[in-house]
Amino acid sequence: MVVQSTLTHCSSIKTCNKHATDFTSIPVISLEDPESKSLMVKACEEYGFFKVVNHRVPMEFITRLESEALGFFNLPQFEKDKAGPPDPFGYGSKRIGSNGDVGWIEYLLLNTNPQVPSLKTLTVFQENPEFFRSAVNDYIQAVKTMAYEVLELIADGLKIEPRDALSKLLRDENSDSCFRLNHYPSCPELEALSGRNLVGFGEHTDPQIISVLRSNNTSGLQICLKDGTWVSVPPDETSFFINVGDALQVMTNGRLRSVKHRVLANTQNSRVSMIYFGGPPLSEKIVPLTSLMGRQEESLYKEFTWSEYKTSAYKSRLGDYRLGLFEKTSSTNQ
């Protein structure tokens, strides 16, 4: 596939010379496992990350949306540009955020509220925009249902009361959630970069409560372990990967840790990923949950709203330790 204009000359994008081993011990959790709640908590404490199987999201929804996404990303550049620049919804290419971060990537950012479609995006799907909207809505609704279940199982495992204390923030009609389709084109020039890896999406944590990721069968995703080691996550196009976000780290007073991750470009194959970012309403106060706090335990974080944190996070660089500004004591954690 030839990607024109904004995605030419991959050698101009940031490279990385860190070699990562495959993450063979990734927690794999079935939603049908009676022990899933405790397994999820353990995985979130240790890695901030796990894989979900037996998720009950129809494969038909997954493959239909991936086909629609590829149809869009295969369009000529001038056609895709009609859906951009993102505001924040719409089409973006190469630039990640507003502070100079770039990657070997193009993407569509969509609202998860079907009542508020991105007209800018729908103009691109001139042949059958309703089919695209239907594919997006079916997929998002199924993934939302799974995300609610995952958060309620985590709440059960942490003995949070009520058990919908987390999921209700995503169910709220004012939930500030979003959905992103990422495309990382293959980059044959990568072979000429002296063994260095081309960065598709730089290292970062997700600001929201939870992220639900599904990708095609192309490698590239890496996560950072507690000791600073980067490991590669083997792709699995039939399963979902769950990331703990910054907001959930705060709500559990640091017990669950948001996971730092990145995506590296693939030499031969393009990567397509779909990510649902579950966020609370903009006015929601992000504070440690009372039912998780010990009698003498103090919050590690200053009180803030999701709107305040989101604004701060999106003004920062990808690799910044975003929660540092909201900790009660200065931190050297990166």
TrEMBL record:
Signal peptide: none annotated. Residues 174-280 form the Fe2OG dioxygenase domain. It comes from the Eukaryota. Gene3D superfamilies: B-lactam Antibiotic, Isopenicillin N Synthase, Chain (2.60.120.330). Keywords: Iron, Metal-binding, Oxidoreductase. Pfam families: 2OG-FeII_Oxy (PF03171), DIOX_N (PF14226). InterPro entries: DIOX_N, IPNS-like_FE2OG_OXY, IPNS-like_sf, Iron_ascorbate_oxido_reductase, Oxoglu/Fe-dep_dioxygenase_dom. PANTHER family: 2-OXOGLUTARATE (2OG) AND FE(II)-DEPENDENT OXYGENASE SUPERFAMILY PROTEIN-RELATED (PTHR47990). Belongs to the iron/ascorbate-dependent oxidoreductase family. This is Fe2OG dioxygenase domain-containing protein. It comes from Hibiscus sabdariffa.
